[in-house]
Amino acid sequence: MILQKQYALIQGSREVVFNFIDTQVGTDLNTPVPAFENRAVRYLLMHNANTYFHWLSYFALKKPFDLLNDENFTNINLIRPVYTEVDNTMAFFIENFKEQLDLPLYNTLSRNRQVSATPLQLFTHVITHEFHHKGQIMSMCRLLGYTPPDTDVIRF
Fold first, then answer.
1. Domain holding 6: CATH number?
2. pLDDT digits (tens, 9 = 90+) for 26-65
3. Does 150 fall in a domain?
4. 102/150 Cα distance (integer angstroms)
5. How many angstroms separate the CA atoms of 140 and 135, rounded?
6. Domain span at residue 17?
7. Does this model's pTM top 0.70?
8. Is 39 exposed, middle or buried (0-12, 13-18, 19+ CB in 10 A)?
9. Which of 4, 111, 130, 138 suits a disulfide with 148, CB 3.0-4.6 Å?
């Protein structure tokens, strides 16, 4: 299915980010970056994971989840297993909705907001959200003194 293939490209790009953080950034993963409201790289990595869980598990699949606190994930070896769970969630989501990508889903969010979105919209939202913040993560790393690698889906 095309969504599985597209998500595999996302995973490949993510792995480049994780390897870069693991081999070069190291403990600066935890260094606050003033230009980003004193947030650390780990914050955006965990924010991305929480976004996948919120929209795919909670909103679409009606499964409860607890927000993950970035302060508990201070190195890439603690973050990688979270993304294994993100991958498992995505695989289940794709399998569950593969024949119903345009089916409107409804859920109530904070402050009693009724929201409707299709599985295709949710898939698109979480992957573009990750890529938005991946760019910010690379900018944060540059501000911390590291030269980021090419993390696009097509790398040259």
1. 1.20.120.450
2. 999 999 999 999 999 999 999 999 999 999 999 999 998 8
3. no
4. 33
5. 9
6. 2-143
7. yes
8. middle
9. 138
DSSP classification of residue 26 = G
| 126 contacts 118 by C-beta, under 8 angstroms | no
Helix residue ranges per DSSP H, 21-99: 41-52, 76-97
Number of domains the chain is built from: 1
Q: What is the distance between the terminal CA atoms of the chain, rounded to a whole angstrom?
A: 26
Burial status of residue 81 (CB atoms within 10 A of its CB: 0-12, 13-18, 19 or more): exposed
- Enumerate the β-bridge partners of residue 116: 106
Does residue 99 sit within a domain? yes
> Residue 106 pairs with which residues in a beta bridge?
116
Q: Which two tokens stand for residue 51?
A: 């976004």
Summarised one tens digit per residue, pLDDT across range 102-130 is: 999 999 888 888 999 999 999 999 999 99
Angle at 131 between CA 74 and CA 86, to 5 degrees: 55
